[in-house]
Design brief:
2 domains; binds zinc ion; 229 residues; alpha+beta; five-stranded antiparallel β-sheet
């Protein structure tokens, strides 16, 4: 493992595995520039980096690659190691999302950043789908109280959750819009820009209300108790 900024998710000082390295053919001398093919353990993406290394350390570098997910920190092998291309992380991702949902919503925001409106809308719908499954499955004994279509179909699942007060009723309308526009994206494949941007805003609002705000409240309450202890 080496520590460097991730070129895929933009996180600073992340743990990465060195999958491969390559010395430029025109490199000579004792200090070499090597291209690094890395794998970020946080976002689980590959990215390219650049390292500066003493020629004498090359066998150790080779060993690090051969060992695969070597446990120790080998950052010291390099004089410097940086990502070659950095994709800035999307801004305004709601905090405290479950990992799987965060990954989906980050992809929705990235698609929008590259003007891939239909893909972005489809990913927003997927985030809504996963959120509703997550909420439903967190309810004790949910299987006894729901039908197969409540569990499997997004429309029915949302209806059940709102009917039983498991989601705030203030979100009902925007959940409906995200679901329907997401269906259009998947079936017609021509989501306009303005609609995709609304989808991202609405999904942000939904995820904040379901995950970010309750967790912030919980943490604030915990801090209060800690102070009184
Ligand atoms: Zn990363």
């Amino acid at each position: 493992m080496i520590i460097l900024d991730c070129g895929a998710c933009g996180r600073e000082q992340t743990s990465a595995d060195l999958l491969q390295f390559r010395i430029s053919p025109d490199e000579a001398g004792e200090i070499l520039q090597v291209k690094l093919f890395c794998y970020c353990r946080v976002c689980r993406s590959e990215f390219l980096g650049l390292g500066v290394v003493d020629k004498l350390k090359l066998p150790l570098l080779r060993k690090l690659v051969d060992d695969g997910q070597a446990k120790g920190d080998y950052t010291d092998l390099f004089f410097a190691a940086i990502p070659l291309y950095v994709r800035p992380p999307p801004k305004n991702v709601p905090e405290h999302l479950p990992n799987a949902i965060e990954k989906i919503f980050v992809e929705a925001l990235e698609c929008a950043a590259y003007s891939l409106w239909t893909a972005s809308a489809a990913m927003c719908r997927l985030a809504l789908d996963r959120m509703s499954k997550d909420v439903l499955e967190s309810i004790h004994g949910f299987e006894e109280h729901t039908t197969k279509s409540d569990r499997e179909r997004l429309a029915n699942r949302l209806e059940w959750l709102f009917e039983h007060d498991n989601l705030p009723s203030s979100l009902a309308e925007i959940c409906q819009i995200v679901r329907l526009n997401g269906n259009d994206a998947v079936h017609d494949g021509n989501t306009p820009e303005i609609e995709a941007k609304d989808m991202c805003d609405f999904t942000t609002e939904i995820l904040r209300s379901v995950y970010t705000e309750p967790e912030r409240r919980r943490m604030a309450i915990e801090r209060r108790y800690d102070r009184r202890r």
